[in-house]
Amino acid sequence: MDTIAAYLERSGVSRRDFVTFCGKLMVAAPFGLAITNFLDVEAVAAEVGSARRPSIIWLHMQECTGCTETLLRPVAPDLATLLFDVISLDYHETVMAASGHDAEAALRDAMKQNDGKFVLVVEGSIPLKDNGKYLKIANQWGVDRVRDVAAHAAAVISIGSCASWGGVQSTGINPTGAVGVDQVIKTRPVVNIPGCPPNPYVLLGTVLQYAKTGTLPELDELKRPKFAYDRVIHDHCPRRPHFDAGRFAKQFGDSNHRQGWCLYQLGCKGPVTHAPCSTRHFNDVVDAWPIGIGAPCFGCTEAGVGYTLALHETVPIKRPMGPDTYPAVYAEGKGISPLATGLAGIVGGALVGAGLLASKKLDHITDTETKE
Amino acid sequence: METDRRSLLKGIAAAATMTVVSTPALARERKKAPDDAVGLLYDATKCVGCKACVVKCKEAGDLPADIDGYGGGLYDAPEGLNESTRNVIQLVKDGDETAYVKKQCMHCIDPACVGACMMGALGKREFGIVSWDNNKCIGCRYCQVACPFGVPKFQWSKTSPRIVKCELCRDLLAEGKLPACVDACPRGAVIFGKREELLQIAHQRIDENKDLYVPKVYGETELGGTQVLYLSHLEFEKLGFRFSDDASVPETQQTVQHGIYKGFVAPLALYGLLGAVMFRNRKRDDQ
Amino acid sequence: MTTYTDQSVPVPSPRVSGERVRVRGVSFNILLFFAAVAIALIIWRFVVGLGASTALSDGYPWGLWIAFDVVTGTALACGGYALALLVYIFNKGKYHPLVRPAVLTSALGYSIAGLSVMIDVGRPWLAWKLPIKFWTWNLNSVLLEVALCIMAYTVVLWIELTPAFLEKFKDDAEWPRLRAFARKALPVFDKALIWILALGLLLPTMHQSSLGSLMLLAGPRLHGLWSTAFLPLFYLVTCLAMGYAIVVIESSFSAIAFGRKPAMRILNRLGTFAAWGTLLFVALRFIDLAIKGRLPLLARFNLYSALFWAETLLFVVPFVILLTKKNNASLGSLLRAAMLVALAGALYRFDTFLVAFDPGPGWHYFPSVSEQLITIGLVALELAIYVAVVKNFPILSGEQNVQAHHD
To answer: Which residues pair with residue B191 across a beta bridge?
Structure first.
């Protein structure tokens, strides 16, 4: 198998484009990811370039293909090509040319070729209700198909909120019994990259990290890579100063909204939503993300928030921000000057002293002595 | 000599009787909220600490920034209610639990500050709002001594100081607008309305979410009742509400004071008595 | 026998008629120096405002000027009230010689208190409204009652003192018109004074008790050991005790400063009154605490219980001193006892107004240097005026010169 650098050279991809790509990767994962943990982009390019192209098998379950779309829709078409040059996408129902039995044969080949080494990416939730009969692909129930492929995979990545925790299909009465991949696959490491859609660089960063080092990035308790999901959108929101100053848009299109004020009152879920959106925008276009274009975050990455809370509902803020900037209930008063206490002491002492001296002086005067 | 002492003690006892004995019988009635009483309902479980109300309150009152507090002189970050802050959000940390609490005038049903104020500069006026009159205040600060919530603030930095306190944006109310803090709140953590309706809402919220709330609406009866009501998930004492007696502060004081000065009868009677005794004494001396 | 203007008592003028009295000396100049410092600081206070010139805060809006100058100061100026009560109501004419110096001290004390209030209030230029715009009075306000009573009583005290000035002018005013006026006015005063004097008894009864009522409105912020509906009674009793004590103190210092012979028998009796007053107060206080079930507060070891016990001790010790002497205490022990009573009363007032007043955690107060210097200066001014008046007008008339005795 080729290294990425060799493959790109052979494919005629310019080094400039690759370095640009690595730069974007650095921005997407400024820390927490081994392959980008360098000071300059050349070093990252060398690191990524020396990795072997990771083999990826991509399965679609109950989904809308939005996650795939976001991968295919950078503003510059060259970059889309580049993405598929960096990874070896061996099976992907949307982008591959083959169909029917040829396609299934390709899947078997890819599994056999990279048995135990490929990364399985699952897009979409898995229906479990009624033995999973709500999804059938290639004459196989969806859940069985994922289990079969995952049994040969090195690791599983759930891309999108549907694959991560059930997504839109799982809300309300959940008619198909949709669950996330990690509810089905227990024998392989699972990385959740929720989002509707998630940022493609998070997927690439995770995959390339695995390709280069054979390890997965550090995950949080919901199995999300920490380098992208460690903070809530609110923490890095460009509209945060408006929140801090109490400047809220009250209605869509009102003057506050047009001035770019905070969207919290319109129902923005940013304060509870762990996602990298506020720092990694979509499609390589600056400000191409919900809050950037004036739409409140709806909390797609968070189970129980996205697709569950109404769009206009506001959320409690669990983590008080900058607690030191809040006064305590009991505030501090003015201090006491030592000069003042000293003066009071001197005056008090003088009075007591004078009184005692005077009384000593008068001790000899009694009633009997000065009979009237 | 014995008679001297006895008569003196008698005199003191007479004064004492006049001062105290008659008082319990005249215990002052507890006041009820005015019919048109409006107020705020603040729900600590809903507040997210955004301080929008603090900002808007300052704008509405045209109050200067307080850069002496937190923020190293860069930000308007008051440490509490003060001469440039009528409304403030404070943070309570209780172990892992946190709560925000909004502080402003409670607009008591029976306000201690109004009872204290010599010339009626502080008064309970339309809608039961406790407001301050620039023309009547001489700056004695008795209101500050009296207020159990520590609300009225004095402009210490000014040579022509005023009393600064929340007046429930009565100028905005007159224009048919909401108080600035209520208008600013992005979560409805503080709402405005008639006191009775707010009480109903508060009890409804407690009933619907018994696990969340402390089962009490602070201000319903505390210190004679207030027009600003509080709901919380933490005990109210932790939010800085130190007192929860049902009697208002002026109740005790006015019971005593009215007992002594009812109709000014006692002082006049004493005056007449003193004059008569002295007159008699002089007559006796003249003979 | 009792008279109201001293006309009938042959009053030895403190000096030979027509001779200029030398008032100024080293100690008098020191008093004037402190007074000048205070006046400069008062001007500064009005230039920079209260925040910069005092340690007052929103937590402790009242400080030294209220707790000492007004509340303690007027209680210490109750000598006139306490003696007038004895002389005019209980018809004890023998105390009469002490009345004039006591009334002078009272008049000065109340005037200084009034001046302090004008320095302390934030908007004194509106204070004129207080006695005039009666239609805006809040009759529930204790402070209003105190303010009006103190204003009125200050006027009453100066009227009570007027005969002393008229007597002087009657004999040797440099202007014949003034002399003629004094001669005409004196009998009028004698007739009218009885109702003024009755007012002079009523007003302090009202406002001295109300000074205690002031802190009723501090409500739950006042510590349980001090907070009681009996505050007005306690303040009345202690102010009387302090009034008698201050007469003793004044006579003692007159004895030292002017070589006057003190009326020991009378002073002994006054000391006894003061002692019984304090004992009454202490007893009432414990009974009140017992009824309220607050005695356990005393067993706790903290600042409050310590201060309460200190007050109690200060009130009880003079009682013990005076009763063990069996009405024959030396002026020295009388002075010590009286000073203890004054100190006890002062501590009780400071505790009620400052220490036991708890505006909440985080607030502190200790009077700033300028606050203290202004208070000291005002007291110095009071003493200076006292000395000047006493040396020029028939005030200490009843006491004989003990110059010979004085070594």
So the answer is: B41
List phi, psi (to 5°) of B43: -115, 105
The reply to whether A312 touches chain C by the CB within 8 Å rule is no
Instruction: Name which of B171, B110, B127 is nearest B36 in CA terms.
Output: B127
A344 in contact with chain C, both atoms CB, cutoff 8 A: yes
Touching B: which chains, 3+ CB pairs < 8 A? A, C
Separation CA B285–CA B272 (nearest Å):
20
CB C384 within 8 A of CB C112: no
How many residues comprise chain C? Answer: 407
Contact A151, A118 (CB under 8 A): no
Cis peptide, bond prior to residue A197, ω within 30 of zero: yes
Would you say B179 and B25 are in contact if contact means Cβ atoms under 8 Å apart? no
Model pLDDT for residues B203-216, shown as the tens digit of each residue: 999 999 999 999 99
Helix (H, G, I), strand (E, B) or coil at A57: strand
**CB A281 within 8 Å of CB A273:** no
- Residues 6 or more apart whose CB falls under 8 angstroms from that of C26 comprise none
Q: Which residues of chain B have pLDDT under 50?
A: 1-3, 5, 8-9, 16, 18-25
Distance CA A197, CA A162 (A): 10
Q: Give the whole-angstrom CA distance, residue C304 versus residue C294.
A: 13
* CA nearest to B74 within chain A: A325
What letter represents residue A227's amino acid? F
Q: Give long-range contacts, CB 8 A cutoff, 24+ apart: B209-215.
A: B212/B45, B213/B45
Centre a 10 Å sphere on the Cβ of residue C259 and count the other Cβ atoms it contains: 14
Mutate which of C96, C330, C407 to disrupt the A interface (most A C-beta within 10 Å)? Answer: C330
Give the pLDDT score at C401: 37
Give C225 to chain A, closest Cα distance, Å. 24
Tell me whether residue B229 is exposed, middle or buried, using C-beta atoms within 10 angstroms of its C-beta: 0 to 12, 13 to 18, 19 or more: buried
C347 has a chain A CB within 8 A of its CB: no
Say if the Cβ atoms of C280 and B260 lie within 8 Å. Answer: no
Q: Output the pTM of the full model.
A: 0.81
Q: Do C122 and B155 touch (CB under 8 A)?
A: yes
Alpha helices, H only, chain B: 2-16, 52-61, 112-116, 142-146, 170-174, 180-184, 195-208, 249-261, 265-286
Chain-wide mean pLDDT for chain C?
84
Burial call A45-74: b when 16+ CB within 10 Å, e when fewer? bebbbebebbbbbbbbbbbbebbbebbebb
> What pLDDT, in 10s, does the model give residues C230-276?
899 999 999 999 998 898 888 888 888 777 777 787 888 888 888 88
| Separation CA C35–CA C381 (nearest Å) | 5
CB atoms within 10 A of CB C295: 12
Asked if residue C336 lies in contact with residue A352, where contact means CB atoms within 8 angstroms, the answer is no
Interval A34-39 mean pLDDT? 82
